């Protein structure tokens, strides 16, 4: 274990604590006062706290414990340590914000929208630090091995069930507001993890691949890779240009390629994470 390891660990723990602080504020000062919940274990914990009048932090810890143990085999000791650390902090911060009695708004719709944004931002910081505050996906990964459903489908089914239960606990209106919060939080998480400069991968098929590649490197200052390809119908072998750009550079690369070969085939896909000195240098 060297200085780099401890520096990385410190930064992760710092951003996990920061994310938990934001998430706890969203829960206790924005969502819960208006009877709006999140999905997953957090949502179950909120309802259990509401029905039993016991502290929310208690349920956050107790209900997540089985999944923290389950994660040990799949994700390793470091992930389990950071997840446990995050869950404990979320529980503590939630109780601290509860004691303040702060209420962000009396309007349920505003609470659902801004609560989702704030909660998703906090959870995003935690996830970006290689930790988690909710055992739902860990459970889904486990179940996906036994049943013919994907992890995403299992998480969706689980959350639909939670919002149906919320309809009985708080009423149908509050359950629908909660669904809005969950959707907004989900998008906010993506924004924090991926960043504003969402990366795109670009594949370009053209006989003029060399000229196109050189023009992209010159005009967009992007590194390109030439991949070998073969036509499915024609069987003709040719090169394909591959590069990674940002969303705002899409029109420019289309214009560059079209000026050289108007018939070129361009495929653009989302990239969830990009790392590398060459990419970062141009941003």
Features:
283 residues; four-stranded antiparallel beta sheet; 11 helices
Q: Characterize the largest beta sheet: strand count, sense, and whether it forms a barrel.
A: 4 strands, antiparallel
Q: What low-confidence regions span 5 or more consecutive residues with pLDDT below 50?
A: none
Count of DSSP helices?
A: 11
Order of helices and strands: HHHHHHHHEHEEHEH
Write up this protein:
Strand 2 and strand 3 form a beta hairpin. This protein has helices spanning 3-31, 40-52, 56-75, 77-100, 108-128, 136-144, 151-170, 172-194, 209-219, 250-260, 277-281, and strands at 199-205, 225-230, 237-246, 265-271. It is elongated. The chain has 283 residues and is of the alpha+beta class. The mean pLDDT is 88. It has a four-stranded antiparallel sheet, with helices on one face.
Give a short overview:
Helix 5 (108-128) packs parallel to helix 8. The chain has 11 helices and 4 strands.
Q: Helix and strand layout, with pairings?
A:
Blueprint: H1 3-31, H2 40-52, H3 56-75, H4 77-100, H5 108-128, H6 136-144, H7 151-170, H8 172-194, E1 199-205, H9 209-219, E2 225-230, E3 237-246, H10 250-260, E4 265-271, H11 277-281
Antiparallel strand pairs: 1-3, 1-4, 2-3
Helix pairs in contact: 1-4, 1-5, 2-3, 2-7, 3-4, 5-8, 6-7, 7-8, 9-10
């Amino acid at each position: 274990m060297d200085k780099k390891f401890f520096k990385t660990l410190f930064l992760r723990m710092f951003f996990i604590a920061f994310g938990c602080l934001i998430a706890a504020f969203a829960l206790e000062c924005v969502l819960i006062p208006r009877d709006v919940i999140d999905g997953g274990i957090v949502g179950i914990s909120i309802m259990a706290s509401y029905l039993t009048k016991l502290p929310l932090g208690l349920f956050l810890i107790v209900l997540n414990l089985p999944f923290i143990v389950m994660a040990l085999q799949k994700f390793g000791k470091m992930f389990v340590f950071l997840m446990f650390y995050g869950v404990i902090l979320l529980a503590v911060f939630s109780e601290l914000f509860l004691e303040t009695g702060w209420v962000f708004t009396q309007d349920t719709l505003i609470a659902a929208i801004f609560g989702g944004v704030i909660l998703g931002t906090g959870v995003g910081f935690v996830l970006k630090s290689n930790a988690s505050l909710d055992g739902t996906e860990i459970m889904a990964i486990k179940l996906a091995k036994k049943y013919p459903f994907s992890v995403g489908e299992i998480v969706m089914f689980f959350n639909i069930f939670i919002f149906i239960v919320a309809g009985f606990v708080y009423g149908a209106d509050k359950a629908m507001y909660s669904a809005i919060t969950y959707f907004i939080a989900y998008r906010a998480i993506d924004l924090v993890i991926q960043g504003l400069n969402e990366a795109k991968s670009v594949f370009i098929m053209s006989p003029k691949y060399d000229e196109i590649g050189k023009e992209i490197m010159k005009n967009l200052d992007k590194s390109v890779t030439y991949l070998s390809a073969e036509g499915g119908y024609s069987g003709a072998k040719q090169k394909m240009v591959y590069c990674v750009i940002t969303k705002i550079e899409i029109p420019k690369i289309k214009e560059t390629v079209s000026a050289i070969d108007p018939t070129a085939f361009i495929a653009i896909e989302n990239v969830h994470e990009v790392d590398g000195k060459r990419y970062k240098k141009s941003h």
